[in-house]
Amino acid sequence: MNNSLPADKLRFSTLHLIGRSLRTAFAERAAYRGDFILSFTVSFFIELVTPLVTLLIYTSGSAFPGWSMQEALLIQAVYLLSRGIAMPVFFGMVWIIFEQAREGTFEITLLKPRSPLLLTILRGLDIEGLSRLFGGILLVVLTLRALPSPSAAGWISFFIFLFLSVFILFGFALILAASLFVWVGNGRVSELLESILVFSRYPGSIYSAALQWGFAVVIPLSMIALYPAEALLGRFSPMMFYAIPASLIFFGAGYFIWKRMIRYYAGGGG
Amino acid sequence: MQIRVNGLKKIYKTYNRGSTFGEVVKSIFHRQMSEVHALKGIDFSIEKGELIGFLGPNGAGKSTTLKILTGVLFPTSGEVTILGLCPWKQRKKYVAQIGAVFGQKSQLVWDIPPVDSFMMNQAIYRIGSGEFNRTLDRLTEMLGVRELMKQPTRNLSLGERMKCEFIMAMLHNPKIVFLDEPTIGLDVVAKDRIREFVEEMNRAGVTFILTTHDLDDVERLARRVILVNHGEVIFDDGIAQLRRYFGAKKILSVSTSSPCNIEESNANGLRLIKRLSPNDVELECNTEKIDLSSLIRDIADRYGLRDLLVQELPIESVIKELQK
Hints:
The complex is a heterodimer. By secondary structure, chain A is mostly helical. Helices cover about 70% and strands about 0% of the residues of chain A. In chain A, about 45% of the residues are buried. In chain B, the strands form three sheets. Chain B has a six-stranded mixed sheet with strand order 5-6-7-3-8-9, sandwiched between helices. In chain B, strands 11-12-10-13 form a four-stranded antiparallel sheet. A three-stranded antiparallel sheet of chain B has the order 2-1-4, covered by helices on one side. Chain B has eleven helices and 13 strands. Classes of the chains: A mainly alpha, B alpha/beta. The interface between A and B is large, with 35 and 46 residues.
């Protein structure tokens, strides 16, 4: 029942709900302090392992065609940064739906007068996953120090592309979570995602022209890390601009699938 | 009319699989689908302030009905209007005015104190601080859980947790509350406190729809019972009418001085339920067919009456009969 006074309306906006959810998520994790500190630290270091393959390739004398080691590392730094934003915020919902669809408890969310998507995202907030964000920021700073300073256009494009990158990852989270309403108990969704995302970690020059087009306009994986990194390096191409609408369409498709699949939720037997 | 349900149908598609190894392997590649008619056209209506017992055996369609009424599930066909809204079409507006307590599904966050979960609900339901504090104070006082508010939920007993679940469900002052097995697993003291709470809230005008297998809850709380079985309403009337459904039957627990061979009397409207000893029997007497005072006199004359207890037919027996 909406008993709120008009002055409360702003206070009880979505921002207030997000703030309260963050406090709850932090309090929940702080209940097991040892596990929280350990998970936070482990996540931080595990993410930093990602660029190791690139380091090994370049130290063994090989190279990605047209890319120096620092430039290739920048792609992976941006990849970690984008994941560092998207994973703690959007991917907790995949596991929340995994559990709730299996146990038939998603109706608790549906009984609240808010968007089920917003509530599921907030319930899935992964506080310790923020260590990935710190890892991503650290790597971007370190790699950029060894590269020429980006131009203003480069920075602006980078932030726009990074925003789209997070949206694409959000789209993936929506598709995975939605699939769990019908594909109940599929614990392999994270492997499925990782095996797709691996294509976004490397320079486009290693793929055929058809795949480069596919990763720009069909499943815009190149927008996750390659194009934001290229923007910082000042390497603009028409393809990255075709990927802008493709990224928005991909997110829209994810949202549409979520809205459709939620209707398939039938809950557990009573 | 606060709740109106017309011709509600729900058909589920489900997959069948055998239990042998071969059938399990086969089911990976091909699953046999079948339709389950969970609801076959249910109709009922509920007035504001009623407290309804919504009963039925497992698989009868109770939970499906409740899920549709709470806006969680889309029906296959039929109409539902609650508080002037269609639950699944106007979900957000509708669920802001209802509450629900599930005995087997918790709304509390396990690792943090209940008060933190309540504050989450404050933000979700946009409850003003003054209103929130007043309601929380009143509810914690009524349920006697004030001192538990800051303990982690995982440290609370089942009864304490259930009281907190009730607070979660009532914080936004809902007009209708759905209770699904609210006293399951609770001790008698906790059950009693919760029943008192429900009664008090109902007196204040809140409509309750109670689904339970604990018929003590129904006898204590409900004034009307809707009984469903095989997806259909098989009874919808007052609890007194439910007792009288098979005639005005009474249960007699009789102790006699000499062996009581009343089962051999073959009297019309009289049935032996249980023989505890040669001198102690339990009888079911249909008072529409046999005069109770004459029967008692007859037993006293023939066998010598030592003790006698006359009771209403247990509601459990009536429901069992109806479900057959």
